[in-house]
């Protein structure tokens, strides 16, 4: 994927840090920050995070934990993220030692996040493994024989 001049100009109007602006010149695929501000390019869509909102024609009010989860999902679209990996991202836990209570807490956060997402983003559970974020094209449903809602 090549960033268009429009995308670079759009990013430069956001008063983002010099570090991000210099990254735009060199990274053709995905740009993200772990500091509650992120600019993520996924296909032709630009997602802009701030602490409590995601903007692409709508606002999404999230808790900090939901923001961290959403950043993980947007950074890995169409990839299954394990419960352990998501718990590590959301709570700073060791992914290999995630217990049943932590998974239950994670599932509650993901459930609330699912309710807030716009129609073109869909979080689905992959039974026994984790979650996957699908980006819906208009008129198309995400397809997978392992994924359920």
Automatic annotation (TrEMBL):
Keyword terms: DNA-binding
GO biological process, one term: phosphorelay signal transduction system
GO molecular function: DNA binding
Record flagged with keyword DNA-binding: yes
Keyword field contains DNA-binding: yes
Ranges where the OmpR/PhoB-type domain occurs: 57-133
A Pfam family assignment: Trans_reg_C
Designated name of the protein: Putative two component transcriptional regulator, winged helix family
């Amino acid at each position: 994927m090549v960033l268009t001049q429009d995308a670079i100009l759009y990013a430069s109007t956001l008063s983002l840090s010099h570090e991000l602006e210099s990254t735009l010149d060199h990274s053709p695929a995905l740009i993200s920050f772990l500091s509650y501000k992120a600019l993520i390019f996924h296909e032709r869509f630009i997602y802009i995070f701030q602490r409590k909102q995601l903007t692409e024609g709508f606002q999404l009010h999230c808790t900090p934990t939901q923001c961290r989860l959403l950043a993980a999902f947007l950074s890995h679209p169409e990839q299954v993220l394990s419960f352990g990996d998501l718990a590590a991202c959301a709570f700073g836990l060791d992914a290999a030692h995630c217990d049943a209570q932590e998974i239950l807490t994670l599932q509650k956060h993901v459930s609330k996040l699912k309710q807030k997402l716009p129609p073109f983003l869909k979080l689905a559970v992959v039974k026994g493994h984790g979650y996957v974020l699908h980006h819906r094209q208009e008129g198309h449903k995400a397809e997978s024989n392992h994924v359920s809602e």
